Inverse folding.
């Protein structure tokens, strides 16, 4: 019997961990209107996963399917291996959530509300609420209806973080927070990740996503158009390089695959570089370079690229 | 059922429940006092007064024959058959539409149902809160009758109290059943409340028409008001088991249907 138990433990240890979120060919339509179409992605344990898209792209629909508020028309959405629709109650034990449009019970006091939500989850560690409220400078003695937008968002953050759930699904969690609080919010997110928790973060705050997330998915018109590590995503974009030479050069020498000359002067050349930059560096090594500036594309460039262009082909996870 | 949710609902509705309960207690005591003043002391005058009232009006208040001159008949006609119904139906419709449809409309349901509560338990917690609130209002009404009767030295059998308590609760549950159904399927409070109010008015109109015109008498059975006769409950000291079963059965069926549809529907504001 003991041997059998050991075998099971051994087998479990050898099994790959169950992904906190696994979405396969997920489709959700509202009658004839599109919600999301054939969405596939997976979020790994301990990952901060950014979920981006313009308004109406299907982010909130996806999140509502994950949280069990909406039933999909096709495909599957699983949290820790359990179906988000049929196994909602069990799924919710492992999940903490902030809705995009956070609505609270207006007539309740902040502490009363948080204690109520804590009881719904089976309780939280002693002093956990107070500790989080201290971090976020949230007054627990106020009534919710008297709170500003930012303070309501803090209530939402405390209610999500107080449970120490292994998965956090956060839809626009930092909306309304002042810059100081945003820093604290990002510290809290990093601490959650350090504690082994997984975070699914939908946000329009691109610098926040850039600083926090390991990977991002971008959806547009209900379809996944990008799913990559942030660095890889940025590397795919066109970066601009400006080179000042000590002597006049022929710009045609730099024109090759992935490099376009944008602007040329007698000694200065401005280049657009896509992909691997090593061939360009090797070419430049043959010249006497006086100065070189190389701008790294930020996530906003990437983001806008995916939003401005015609619908990209579907990306498989 | 989730006790935390039920207690929260009751706490948030405590003032409203207390207002309805106290109001009903006060009004029922007042009607008992009026019975003694008008009927017992001025029977002849009252009989004459009734002859000049239109038949339809008497029918609307469930006044027939000499029934009005009994304690149960008077209490039924002056309060329990109509005014109590209006008050309690308004309370129930407001409560039930606020319990689910308003949470969907305002978006608060998104957060609560992301907790390990479960939709059926969420629904049943709200039903439990309504049942407790209804029992409080019915108990307060009975309390008012008891105090009024005691002050006017009117003997009311305990069986009559029990009967009217059971019948009034069953009637309230029937209204609550279909009101919860509409609240569970609607996404806006006004839609849920409007549908429940319309059905209640329709039930009343059907019963009224069937008692006024003999050609429509068969239709009366389709109305919950046909099975709600507080006069008989007080005067006879018992509730017709068939009436109770119809009211309770309707409550049960519509609650189950509401819970099932709530379990399956998409939830978004």
């Amino acid at each position: 019997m003991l041997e059998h138990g050991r075998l099971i433990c051994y087998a479990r240890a050898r099994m790959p961990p169950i992904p906190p979120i696994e979405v396969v060919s997920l489709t959700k339509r509202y009658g004839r209107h599109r919600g999301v179409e054939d969405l596939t992605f997976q979020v790994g344990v301990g990952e901060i996963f950014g979920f981006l898209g313009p308004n109406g792209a299907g982010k909130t629909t996806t999140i509502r399917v994950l949280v069990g508020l909406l039933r999909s028309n096709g495909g599957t959405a699983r949290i820790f291996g359990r179906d988000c629709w049929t196994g909602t109650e069990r799924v919710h034990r492992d999940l903490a959530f902030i809705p995009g449009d956070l609505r609270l019970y207006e007539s309740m006091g902040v502490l009363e509300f948080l204690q109520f939500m804590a009881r719904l989850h089976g309780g939280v560690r002693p002093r956990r609420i107070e500790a989080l409220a201290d971090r976020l400078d949230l007054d627990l003695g106020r009534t919710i209806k008297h709170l500003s937008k930012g303070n309501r968002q803090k209530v939402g953050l405390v209610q999500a973080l107080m449970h120490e759930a292994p998965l956090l699904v956060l839809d626009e969690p930092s909306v309304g927070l002042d810059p100081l609080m945003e820093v604290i919010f990002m510290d809290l997110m990093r601490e959650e990740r350090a504690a082994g928790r997984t975070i699914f973060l939908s946000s329009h705050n691109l610098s926040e996503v850039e600083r926090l997330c390991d990977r991002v998915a971008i959806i547009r018109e209900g379809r996944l158009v990008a799913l990559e590590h942030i660095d890889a995503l940025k590397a795919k974009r066109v970066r601009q390089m400006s080179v000042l030479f000590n002597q006049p050069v022929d710009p045609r020498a730099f024109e090759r695959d992935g490099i376009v000359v944008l602007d040329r002067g007698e000694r200065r050349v401005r280049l657009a570089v896509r992909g691997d930059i090593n061939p360009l560096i090797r070419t430049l090594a043959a010249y006497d370079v006086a100065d070189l500036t190389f701008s790294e594309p930020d996530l906003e460039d990437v983001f806008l690229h995916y939003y401005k262009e015609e619908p990209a082909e579907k990306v498989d996870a | 059922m989730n006790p935390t949710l039920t207690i929260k609902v009751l706490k948030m509705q405590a003032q409203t429940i207390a207002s309805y309960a106290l109001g009903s207690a006060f009004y029922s005591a007042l009607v008992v006092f009026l019975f003694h003043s008008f009927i017992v002391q001025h029977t002849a005058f009252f009989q004459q007064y009734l002859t000049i009232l239109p038949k339809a009006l008497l029918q609307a208040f469930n006044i027939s024959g000499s029934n009005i001159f009994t304690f149960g008949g008077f209490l039924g006609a002056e309060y329990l058959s109509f005014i109590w119904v209006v008050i309690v139906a308004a309370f129930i419709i407001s409560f039930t539409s606020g319990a689910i449809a308003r949470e969907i409309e305002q978006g608060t349901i998104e957060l609560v149902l992301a907790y390990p509560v479960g939709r059926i338990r969420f629904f049943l917690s709200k039903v439990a809160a309504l049942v407790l609130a209804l029992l409080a209002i019915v108990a307060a009404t009975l309390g008012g009758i008891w105090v009024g009767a005691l002050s006017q030295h009117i003997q009311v059998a305990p069986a009559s109290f029990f009967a009217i308590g059971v019948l009034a609760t069953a009637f309230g549950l029937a209204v609550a059943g279909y009101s919860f159904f509409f609240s569970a399927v609607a996404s806006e409070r006004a839609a849920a409340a409007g549908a429940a109010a319309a059905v209640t008015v329709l039930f009343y109109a059907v019963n009224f028409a069937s008692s006024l015109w003999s050609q429509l008498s068969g239709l009366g059975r389709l109305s919950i008001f046909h099975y709600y006769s507080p006069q008989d409950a007080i005067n006879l000291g018992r509730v017709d088991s068939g009436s109770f079963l119809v009211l309770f059965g309707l409550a049960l069926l519509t609650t189950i249907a509401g819970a099932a549809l709530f379990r399956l529907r998409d939830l978004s504001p």
